[in-house]
């Protein structure tokens, strides 16, 4: 709305010099001014006329089509990108899907490859989170501690709950690489906040998934067998150790009430899906042959993740 207001003033000023316009000075009384009379106005009179026009505009209000929003978390002003369904119905209750990008990816870049709203097809409100210096807590290069990022996600949900009709029992988190680690961190440190998480090529640095709170969270881990950035079998990166996919699968499976001694597999295209035979809360690995370190397109990580969340 502020952009519209500034545009209205600029358009009115230009019109005084070039074209004939009709301006409403009050709802009850209107006067038409031709180009000669309008262009003869003094600067003060033109300013007063502009003010009169702006008084007829409605006041600013909350954005109804999404966009940037701001929250306070851990003493910092943080922002996130909100994407509402095209046919958003304020009377309807929606689940929320939060997307986290990889290291050095801002929210706009994350949206460009995750495209969660496309797969959700109007069935969820989608958020793209913005990390401090484009990084997420728990990683050795993070600019903010993990606890502050968890507080940030809580602030997002509180903000959405105050402004939109959301189902707090259906909050989901997905991410790539460092952002996948952040999604896993929510399952570890805030199981009360999220119903399910999905990590794609996730980086599980020890602080991210250590010292977990009690609580079960549906968990999907997608990772390529040839990932040469964050290895499937774990390793050291940026001078810090990170867990293997199987290690996190085991730890989360135990928290999810799974019998981790009996795990079955099934083939689905170029992916092998591993899941415990007996599990109170769904826990899966999708191991992709030759996928590299990326948000996968074959199979589509976007479709797989959203289907896992929404069914």
Automatic annotation (TrEMBL):
It is found in: Secreted. It comes from the Bacteria. GO terms for biological process: xylan catabolic process. GO terms for molecular function: feruloyl esterase activity. InterPro entries: AB_hydrolase_fold, Esterase_phb, FaeB/C/D, TAT_signal. The keyword Signal applies. Transmembrane segments: none annotated. Keywords: Carbohydrate metabolism, Hydrolase, Polysaccharide degradation, Secreted, Signal, Xylan degradation. This is Polyhydroxybutyrate depolymerase. It comes from Corynebacterium tuscaniense.
